Amino acid sequence: MSKLIFFDTETTGNTEKDFLCQIAYKSGNENFTGLYKPPLKIPPEASAVHHITNKMVADKPSFKDSGDLPKIKKLFEDKGTIVVAHNAPFDLIMIKKEGIEPQKFICTLRVARYLDPEEKIERYNLQYLRYLLEIEVDATAHDALGDVLVLEQLFERLRKKLVENERLGDDEALEKMIEISGHPSLLHTFKFGKHNGKRIEEVMRTDKGYLEWLLEQKLNGDGIDEDWIYTLKHYLRK
Fold first, then answer.
1. For the whole model, what pTM was predicted?
2. Which residues form the Exonuclease domain (predicted)?
3. Which end of the chain has the least Cβ crowding within 10 Å, N or C?
4. What is the pLDDT of residues 191-220, one digit of tens each?
């Protein structure tokens, strides 16, 4: 039987150059939260999101030196484990830097997009979905453990909807979630920039140069943009 581990990281930023400063997970009745001193200073814009300051981690060990790494690595990499995260590709990159590479994962963001083919949901970030779906959890937003508690409830909602929509058993739904999570999402609508609200196929016809420019920005940036790179290449047939 698969073991689900819901986890979240708080980091120095949202690019490939950043590092974790907090990790939290929940597995059954076990909760864990650890705070660490990252190799980079935590910039104020990151602290403004998760409220972790350089002063708070000044006397903390690095994750590698904390003693927590071997336990978490063994737990996350076990062949019976499925790790669950929201926008999992980002969190997986952060823990891969620390030497942790889970065999199976579920990304609740990609599953939420899959279950919304008409893109009726305005945004897919965790806290937006928390309030949209009226998930009642006593959890502080952008605190790693608080986000994990919301994540667990979101996961159950998504699995239930997948079971209902596609008439799957619970285990089949789990495998479907892994399958959906394993490849980038194909996006259909711009929700930012000068073409906000427009279908990407429409922009392809009227402003192909913008898509080419955006793809170049995504490819050359240090953000984690698998879904957008996949989408733009799809429409540009590259």
1. 0.91
2. 3-164
3. N
4. 888 999 999 999 999 999 999 999 999 998
